[in-house]
Amino acid sequence: MKEFFGIGGYQRTPEGAFSWQHLLFVTSLMVIMVVLAIFLGKRNKNSSDRQKNLVLIWAAILIDGFELVKIILACAEDINAWQMMLPLFLCSIQLIAIPLAAFSGGRIREAALDFVSVFGLLGAVLGTFGATQNYNAYPVLSFTNVVSGITHTISGFAALYIMISGMASMKKKNMWITFAILFTFCVAAYAANVLVDYNYMFLMSGDGTPYDILFNLVGGHKVFYPLSVVALFVVYIGLFYGVWHAVEKKKQQIAAV
User: Fold this and answer.
1) What CA–CA distances, in Å, run from 201 to 63, 92, 149, 207, 229?
2) Looking at per-residue confidence, does 2 or 38 come out higher?
């Protein structure tokens, strides 16, 4: 257990990113994520809003619970560890967005549901298969990677569940709220990076992740690189909404035939 939690530092040599251990572990999590989302989403599709929301409540409790335990244990080892655990990564925004979707109401809830739908699956893939920095630094079956895998797949589960159960509205009038949430966190992440010398939202460097491709394309420019990262988010949001509405329009056309 001491070795699993990394107390005093991990003694095992990390298996490495894209090793069979890494791929087997994250693929298993993703399969569980998809199966649960499809099962619960289809089961609750015609249920009351209260029944649908109960699943999101549990998702919110679990994702924040796991993250809180991780922060407590990390700070027990190093009191300054919190500086590297602020909810300022793209995936970490779900720690706030999923509870908002589960416990708020009105337009805020609608926007939160849409935000989780837009970024939940992306975060799940990037935080499992794409988290090369974690799997190069820590053993696959370590507390750090296990909790990271669980929280990222909870985000993906919530996104899939919201879409399958019919909770997502994707109203164009709420699109600006999605952008506002993203930009707010990007500004906060950049400020935190400067203050604590970290790399939230990967706005300072690729840090061994697929963002390295973009970082190298712009030569690591201190202005163009973070702006390019934000621009990618904007393009992704636009594409997601575009595809969503195209699919919905096609469904309506088919239904009308």
Assistant:
1) 19, 9, 18, 11, 9
2) 38
Residue 153: the pLDDT is 97
Helix (H, G, I), strand (E, B), or coil: what is residue 216?
helix
Which amino acid type is present at position 176? W
Could you tell me the end-to-end alpha-carbon distance of the chain, in angstroms, rounded to an integer?
A: 61
Q: How far apart are CA 190 and CA 193, in angstroms?
A: 5
Q: What's the pLDDT score for residue 133?
A: 85
Q: Which two tokens stand for residue 42?
A: 């289809």
Rounded Cα gap, residues 82 and 87, in angstroms? 10
Residue type present at position 189: A
Residue 150 backbone dihedrals phi, psi, to 5 degrees: -65, -50
Q: How far apart are CA 216 and CA 211, in angstroms?
A: 9
What lies within 8 Å, CB to CB, of 139 at 6+ separation is: 10, 12, 13, 14, 15, 145
Distance CA 17, CA 130 (A): 9
**pLDDT tens-place string over residues 92-150:** 899 999 999 999 988 889 999 999 999 999 999 989 998 888 999 899 999 999 999 99
Long-range contacts of 21-25 (CB under 8 A, 24+ apart): 21/140, 21/141, 22/135, 22/140, 23/129, 25/140, 25/141, 25/145, 25/149
Q: How confident is the model at residue 172 (pLDDT cuts 50, 70, 90)?
A: confident
d(CA 139, CA 100): 33
